[in-house]
């Protein structure tokens, strides 16, 4: 693994990272690593590629209307 030093992080950005680290029970370093990895995957097209594959797999299927199905289920009660 490589090491990285980031200088002059704006106070508001640092505060958000600290808050998210605490909420996720991570150290600040782990939170920054998590953010960087997530961003790298998104920029590499991981999520978009997965969405396109999903769209191709479900093409032509009648997936119905979820909202209508939920309303019908509620009315049956």
Please indicate the percent range of residues in DSSP E strands (runs of 2 or more): under 5%
Low-confidence stretches: none
Shape: elongated
How many strands? 0
The secondary-structure element order is HHHH
How many helices?
Answer: 4
Mean pLDDT: 89
Q: Output the structural class.
A: mainly alpha
By oligomeric state, this entry counts as single chain
Round the Cα radius of gyration to an integer and report it. Answer: 21 Å
> What does the largest sheet look like?
none
Give me some keywords for this one.
77 residues, mainly alpha, 69% helix
Could you characterize the architecture of this molecule?
There is one protein chain. Helix 1 (11-23) crosses helix 2 (28-43). It is built from four helices and no strands. It has 77 residues and is mainly alpha-helical.
Q: Topology, please?
A:
Elements (H helix, E strand, L loop, with lengths): L10 H13 L4 H16 L2 H13 L7 H11 L1
Summarize the structure.
The chain is mostly helical. It has four helices and no strands. The longest helix has 16 residues, at 28-43.
């Amino acid at each position: 693994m490589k090491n990285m030093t980031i200088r002059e992080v704006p106070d508001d950005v640092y505060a958000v990272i600290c808050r998210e680290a605490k909420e996720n029970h991570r150290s600040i370093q782990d939170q920054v690593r998590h953010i960087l990895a997530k961003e790298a995957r998104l920029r590499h097209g991981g999520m978009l590629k997965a969405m396109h594959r999903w769209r191709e797999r479900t093409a032509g299927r009648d997936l119905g209307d979820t909202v209508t199905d939920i309303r019908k289920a509620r009315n049956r009660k």
